[in-house]
Amino acid sequence: MFYTYILLSKKDGKLYIGSTHDLKKRYDQHCNGFVTSTKNRLPLELIHYEAFLASTDAKRREIFLKGGKGHSELKILLQSTYRKIRYNYKY
Fold first, then answer.
1. CATH of the domain at 43
2. What does each of the 91 residues of the chain score in pLDDT, given as a tens digit?
3. What distance lies between CA 34 and its chain's CA centroid?
4. N or C: which end of the chain has fewer CB within 10 A?
């Protein structure tokens, strides 16, 4: 399986969107400071993930979610989660 995932930085309140073939290992790498783009944004919380059979589908979803239409879709998809974690989504 391949995954597209969303992490929330509890330090700065911003989201990180990525994709991987091993979600647990990649999440551990993020949480232990081994990922350059998130090591200064710890602690992190996994708030959403999607599973795919093909790596290209997971990567395509990651790219889409990082764009304007993807952010709009996330507002709708994760509205309850955003309220629960008090995420102030300003895109």
1. 3.40.1440.10
2. 999 999 999 999 889 999 999 999 999 999 999 999 999 999 999 999 999 999 999 999 999 999 989 988 988 888 888 888 777 665 4
3. 16
4. C
